[in-house]
Amino acid sequence: MSDAKVRPSKLKFKGEKSKKKRKRDHDDEGGPGSSKRRDDEDLDTWVLPEAANEIRGPAFIMHPSEPSPLSINYSATAAKVVLHALDKDRGEDDEPVKLLDRTPGDVSQVWVVTRIAGSPTINIRTGTGEGKFLSCDKYGLVSADRDARGPQEEWTPVVFPDGMVAFQNMYEKFLAVDEVAGGALQLRGDSEEVGFRERFWVKIQYKYKKEANEEEKKRKDGASGPSAADELTANKLYQTWGAGRTVTSAEDKKEIKRAKKEGRLAEALLDRRAKLKSDRFC
C-alpha cells in the first residue's frame, strides 16, 4: 500500500503566481551562504513588520488574549467582523502552534492593506466576500460593511519597539479587544490610551516588506518616489481580489486623472522649454 501524498498546508491566494525555487549550492566564489542567497526566503513567507510603512498587502492580525489568542476575521456569511480563538487551530501534529509562528489558514483571516498616496494612513479591506473596508464611527463601533473608503475607514498604524502594532482611527482613538456583558469579546475603537488590549501582532508577506524597504532606500538616496498616479495604480492592484475585480472609489478615479493630467502638463512645459532653448541658439 503506497503512502498517501501529503498536500501542502500553505494558504494560496487567488491571482498569485507560483514561483519556481532555484537551487544555489554555492556563490560565485564557491562558498555557501553568500549574500546572494539572502533571498532564498520565500517571498510569500509571513513576517512581522518593523516599521509602519511596511504594513501593506495581505495582513494577518492577531491579539495575544488569554486563555486563547485571537485573530481578527471577517465572516462573509454573517457580513461582520469576528474574533476567532486560535487555540482551535492546530498544527499538522495536532499540537498548538506558538502565536508568532502562526500563519493564516483561511482567507477569512486575511485582510488587504492599501496605503493612501502621500499619507501615513492605511485602509484595511476584507480579503473575502465583497471586499468591505474596516471602519469605526464616532461611538467606537467597528464594522466592515462599506464598499467605499472615507475618513472613518482610515487607520494610522503605530509600530512599537517590541514589534506590536496599534491602530489609531480618525477620532484619535485606538482599536482594542473589549469584554462585553456575558464575557464575550468584541472589537472597539474608542480607547484613549494604548495598553495590552490595544496591541496586536500583525504579520505581512515578506515581498511587501522588501518592497517597502526598497522604496525607503530610494527616498533616502534622493531618488524621486513613485508618482501619485503610480501609487494609486499600485493601490488598485492591492485592491484586486479574485476574478480581477477592483474596488476603486470615485475619489480615487479623480485623483488618478488629476495626476495623469499634471504629468502631461509637466511634459509639455519641458518640451516648450527645450524648444525655446533650441531656438535661442539657432
Describe this structure in words.
By secondary structure, the chain is of the alpha+beta class. The chain has two domains: 38-225, Trefoil (Acidic Fibroblast Growth Factor, subunit A), CATH 2.80.10.50; 251-282. It contains three helices and 13 strands, in the order E-E-E-E-E-E-E-E-E-E-E-E-E-H-H-H. The longest helix has 31 residues, at 250-280.
Largest beta sheet, briefly?
Answer: 7 strands, antiparallel
State the CATH class of the largest domain.
Answer: Mainly Beta
Stated plainly, the CATH topology of the largest domain is called Trefoil (Acidic Fibroblast Growth Factor, subunit A)
User: Structurally, how many domains make up the residues?
Assistant: 2
Stretches where pLDDT is under 50 for at least 5 consecutive residues are: 1-9, 19-38, 236-248
Helix content: 10-25%
**Radius of gyration (Å):** 22 Å
**Roughly how many Å apart are the termini?**
88 Å
Number of strands: 13
The share of residues in extended strands comes to: 15-25%
Structural class: alpha+beta
Order of helices and strands: EEEEEEEEEEEEEHHH
Family: Belongs to the FRG1 family.
Main location: nucleus
Keywords: Nucleus
InterPro entries: Actin-crosslinking, FRG1
